[in-house]
Design a protein that fits this description.
This protein is of the alpha+beta class. It has helices at 65-74, 86-89, 106-115, 119-130, 133-147, 169-179, 185-189, 211-214, 254-275, 317-320, 371-387; strands at 4-10, 22-23, 26-27, 37-42, 48-52, 81-83, 103-105, 193-197, 202-206, 218-226, 230-239, 242-249, 276-282, 287-291, 293-294, 301-305, 309-314, 323-330, 333-334, 342-350, 353-362.
């Protein structure tokens, strides 16, 4: 790569995790789930810890409403009153049975949306924020794609089956990872019960998310069911500072499927918490090396990691040993160099999988010293002496005369 080279070194030691990896004398049992598509993602880093058909597009039912809630929260219009249209009132069940012309606070509709999965609330929100469901769905899809959920298409705001309305377990985990950072989202999905009044009646809702009561650390997110999608659930839980996201799509149909989505979710989350923990692999401002500097009297300049990196790793020496770092730095820097200048990057890998890139920054400075700068100093000194004024003569780069003054 011309003036660049890569330095490989191992920070921790390891080998790539297999489908049924063996660590020491312990066999790690991978999740066994009924869902057609599923995934386990760690939220801080976005690392996928396990998956099953995680990139296969599938119907996602009311897990759709995670994106509906994101756009509603980010609109910052929660206190606006929404007038219910005929289309919203006619939405099929599940619904809160809104009436045409009824006025409801947008923030209250969000509670109905996420606690009881009200389809009429989804339509009312979409129409109020974007003028139509169709326009709102275009915004939902654009938002998903901007987050990296490239295989997601929204054609309804509620999650009811329509056209190419689809997502993947991976995309839903990506969307949820973002949702957990949106102010008010976790509070919304963790609300156990809600009571509010519209212009026509009072409402009382209870959260349908069983995980909140049945799994330690649970903090989300959304159930879903349609005849096409089967029973689905996006779950989230946090323990000991590690936030996990699980997705199960098509865990089954009927009463068995309704219960199976909870079984699948707990199986996946337990796998994550039982077998993964954070390991710090790079500490911010640790020295990473040094690089020579040309056109300067200074010696080599040290460089450091601009920020640290920690990664959820399987609690096994095997996976720790697979972590390594590649440093991409110039063969030499050309003066001037200032402390804080980005001079390269460190790329962290877990086995063959790229994990993160961290800028490398200079810790010190090196002033330029060559024929050009020496001549400028001489001219500035003499001209200032005769004119009795400070001057700043800058010569064209041509006067640098490469190789006239070698680095010292």
């Amino acid at each position: 790569m011309n003036r660049y080279f890569s330095v490989f070194f191992t920070i921790l030691a390891m080998g790539v995790i297999a489908i049924t990896p063996v660590f020491g004398n312990t066999t790690i049992e991978i999740p066994t789930v009924n869902a057609h598509g599923a995934i386990l993602m760690e939220a801080e880093t976005g690392r996928v810890l396990w998956g099953k058909n995680e990139h296969t597009p599938l119907a996602m039912a009311s897990t759709t409403k995670i994106m509906t809630a994101i756009l509603a929260l980010e609109s910052e219009r929660a206190d606006e009153m929404v007038t219910v249209s005929n289309k919203a009132a006619a939405a099929p069940r599940m619904k809160m049975f809104l009436q045409k012309g009824e006025e409801v606070r947008l923030g209250d509709l969000m509670l109905a949306l996420m606690l009881e999965s009200s389809n009429d609330a989804a339509v009312a929100i979409a129409e109020h924020l974007s003028g139509s469901v169709e326009a709102f769905c275009k915004e939902m899809t654009a938002k998903a794609h901007s987050l990296g959920a490239k295989n997601t298409i929204f054609e309804t705001a509620s999650g009811l089956d329509a056209g190419r309305h689809q997502s993947t377990p991976y995309d839903l985990a990506v969307i949820t990872r973002y949702a957990l950072t949106v102010p008010g989202f976790i509070e919304l999905t963790n609300t156990r019960a809600a009571n509010f009044t519209s212009s026509k009646r009072s409402y009382a809702f209870n959260n349908r998310n069983r995980l909140l009561n049945e799994f330690s650390g649970a903090n989300g997110v959304k159930t879903g069911f349609t005849n096409k999608a089967g029973h689905c659930f996006v779950g989230a839980a946090k323990r000991d500072g590690m936030q996990l996201i699980s997705v199960v799509l098509a865990s089954g149909w009927g009463a068995k499927g309704r219960n199976q989505k909870w079984v699948d979710t707990k199986e996946i989350l337990n796998f994550g918490f039982d077998n993964y923990e954070f390991q710090t692999i790079i500490t911010a401002e640790d020295l990473a090396g040094s690089v020579p500097v040309t056109r300067s009297r200074s010696g080599p300049v040290d460089f450091m990691y601009s920020y640290g990196a920690r990664v959820p790793l399987n609690k096994s020496q095997n996976e720790k040993d697979s972590v390594y770092v590649q440093l991409y730095i110039p063969v030499a820097l050309k003066a001037p160099v200032s402390a804080g200048d980005v001079i390269g990057s460190a790329r962290v890998f877990i086995g063959t999988d790229f994990f993160k890139e961290i800028p490398l920054v200079a810790t010190g400075s090196a002033t330029r010293h060559d024929f050009k700068t020496s001549l400028e100093k001489l001219l500035n000194s003499h001209v200032s002496f005769f004119t009795k004024k400070d001057v700043d003569i800058t010569l064209p780069e041509f006067f640098a005369f490469p190789d006239i003054l070698p680095p010292t």
